[in-house]
Write a structure and sequence with these properties.
This protein is an alpha/beta fold and 154 residues long. A seven-stranded mixed β-sheet has the order 4-3-5-1-6-9-8. It has a two-stranded antiparallel sheet with strand order 2-7. Bound molecules: NADP nicotinamide-adenine-dinucleotide phosphate (NAP).
C-alpha cells in the first residue's frame, strides 16, 4: 500500500502557527481534494478539530496517542492512504511512509509546529514529480518517494 504524507508547509518547513490553527494560507486544497478522493485519510485529533474542508468521499481515520500506527495501517484495505497531519501524526507514521507530497508556500512561520514535530530519524527522498499549483505565486507540489534501506524491514 502507498502511504502518502501530504502537507502544505511554510518556506521554513512549518505546518501551522499553533496546535489549533485553522489553516487559511494553503492554496492547494483543490489538489488535496482531488488526490485524496476515494482514499482513507489519517489524521490526529488536533487536526480533526481544525478541519473546515469537507472530507466527503474520503474515509477519515482519527488517531489518538494510544494508537499504534502499524495496527491502524494493517486494517486498511486500499492500495493507497494519506497521512494528512498534523506534526505529531506525521511523526507517528514517519517510519511507514512510502511517499511525501509537499507544497511549500511563500510565508515564514516563526513559532509553530514543524512538519515532523517529534522525529528523530532521517529520511532520504527521491524526487518524482512537481505539480503546478499556482505558478504566478511560485507554488508547486513536490512529490517524493521515501528511499528505504533494503536491509531494513518494516
Ligand atoms: N499545513 C498542513 O498541511 C496541515 C495539515 C494538517 C494539520 N495542520 C495543522 O497542524 C496542527 C495540529 O498538529 P498537531 O501536531 O498539534 O496535532 P495532530 O497530529 O493533528 O494531533 C495530535 C496527536 O497527538 C496525540 N498527542 C497529543 N498529546 C500527546 C502527548 N503528550 N503524547 C503523545 N501523543 C500526544 C493526540 O492524541 P490524543 O487524541 O490522544 O490527544 C493526537 O493523536 C493544527 O494547527 C492543524 O491545522 C496543518
Amino acid at each position: 500500500m502507498d502511504i502518502i504524507l501530504i502537507a502544505a508547509v511554510s518556506a521554513n518547513g512549518m505546518i501551522a502557527k499553533s496546535h489549533d490553527e485553522v489553516i487559511s494560507w494553503s492554496k492547494d486544497l483543490h489538489i488535496f481534494r482531488r488526490q485524496t478522493m476515494g482514499y482513507p485519510v489519517i489524521m490526529g485529533s488536533n487536526t480533526k478539530n481544525t478541519l473546515t474542508a469537507d472530507l466527503d468521499g474520503r474515509t477519515p481515520i482519527v488517531v489518538h496517542r494510544g494508537d499504534e500506527p502499524d495496527e491502524i495501517l494493517s486494517k486498511i484495505k486500499s492500495d493507497k492512504c494519506f497521512i494528512i497531519g498534523g506534526g505529531k501524526t506525521y511523526s507517528k507514521f514517519a517510519q511507514f511512509l512510502t511517499h511525501i507530497f509537499l507544497t511549500p508556500h511563500p510565508l515564514i512561520i516563526g513559532k509553530g509546529i514543524s512538519l515532523f514535530s517529534d522525529l528523530l530519524e532521517n529520511l532520504d527522498l527521491e524526487f518524482l514529480n512537481m505539480l503546478d499549483i499556482d505558478s504566478e505565486q511560485g507554488i508547486y507540489q513536490y512529490q517524493y518517494k521515501v528511499k528505504r534501506d533494503i536491509h531494513h524491514t518494516h
